[in-house]
Amino acid sequence: METESEPYVRLATLRQLHQAVADLNTARSLADTVQTVADGIVTGLGYGLACVNLVRPDGDLVVAAFAGNSAAEALITGRIGSRASWERRLSMGEAWDELRFIPHTDGWVLLDDDVPQWHTEGPEPRFEDEWHPQDRLYAPMYASGSGRDLLGVISVDRPRNGRRPGAWGREALQMYASQAAIAISNARLRTNMQRALVRLEREQQALRASEESFRQAFEYAPSGMAIAEMGGDQHGRLLRTNDALCRLLGRPASVLRRYSFADLVHPEDIGTLLRTSAEGGRAELRLGRRDGSYFWVSLRNSVVADTTDGPRFLLTHVEDIEERKRHELHLAHRASHDALTGLPNSAELRSRLSSRLCERPNAVGATAIEVLDAAYADLDAERDARGHGYEVDLGPEGLYDHHVHAVAPDTEQDDGAKGLAVLFCDLDGFKSINDRFGHHTGDAVLIEVARRLSTGVRDGDTVARLGGDEFVVLADGLAAVDAADLAVRLRNAIIPPIRVDGRAVRVGASFGIGWAACGMTAEEVLASADQRMYVEKRSRSKANRRAG
User: Which member of 135, 426, 461, 469 is catalytic?
Assistant: First the structure.
């Protein structure tokens, strides 16, 4: 079972990984791109050393970039390893999907081959999964397309946590290698196109020769390319598109000439597009296909001059990043949700609860509300329509600061005020099911309880698994009596038998109702609800003993 700190570590690592991937496409040259790939391994993925080996035209691999150790970089950068030696390494060891791990027990046979390498000194491992100084981990990079030609190999060493990467770390390294291959391919493409643009500025004869080279690079580029008008009334109108972009958008070139990118972008991303419509502009946004669906792309612009001092056009490179975005969402979901039930986990619960609370308690009294009601005659109707029992913070100067304070209802008088209810649920009898029938049955019970709780709440309410057999429900806009009724309904939903492998088992549930109020921390709110649950469980136990 993962610790409470691990989701935070995953989220922090995911942010670093996202930044490292974003940095790949900001380098202005192939050399900068390759060095950025190596630096991203060290800064974003948590390895002490990273080496990027690129395939040369003759098939051998050259050390193109190194990060993590300046002494090692000076010694091995520019050195060459034969293709045969690299093929041998990529066929050895353990296959972690597309990654290749060669433990030190197998790697001794490679010490004398011609592949440039560097190993950090260190003690012998004490644990089974601890990293050995002579362990090797390689991430192949393949060029886009059906041929999957080897573009290069990333080798890493010395994870900062001292352990071999787990499943999540391997997936992150493999995804990064895939994005690095795209960035290197794009850098080479940009270099070729920039050289073509330089030739276009020369004499007319050289211009005609270079134009064919540019046409080939444009038409047969593996990713989408477009030329659009720059300036004037028709700014942004597509003049020319390649086959790859037509396939991405599901529209023929003749149809695309009627559009600009502003016509194709998702309405929520139009501002991003406008900020990108300049030389060197780059953004990630969504474009629409012919069927009405949208997909994520990385868009990058550069300016092309038709002739010296002639018309200027915008050359736009479009890369499909839908898969990478899907991976990011998947990793973010894994970091914030319970693997067994699919509910938000403890870290996500605390995050959602904290987002509703400010650090200072609500100090605005009835007089301030009356003043605000007098100034805004429609506030009462709007507040009643929402069903929220919140008070409005006027701030130190008496001005509305757009924060709506969470206020705990007076549960003793039950005046009908509404607030954010926090229902702490602990299952009764769950431990005996685990002990008697095993963890398989216990897991099935937890999954079914999670389903019943989720079915019993409203859209917009949160059901989270705090850990073990403890669940928490966040329900906004409830009065005290509403929260009590909700607890009864949820308890009644849990009580019916749960069938697992043909066997019917039962669990009960104890609920404690707390209230979130500004000035409290998320931990204080949860502790209050937990204490009320404990009091309820104890009182029910005494009542059962008296009844027995």
Answer: 469
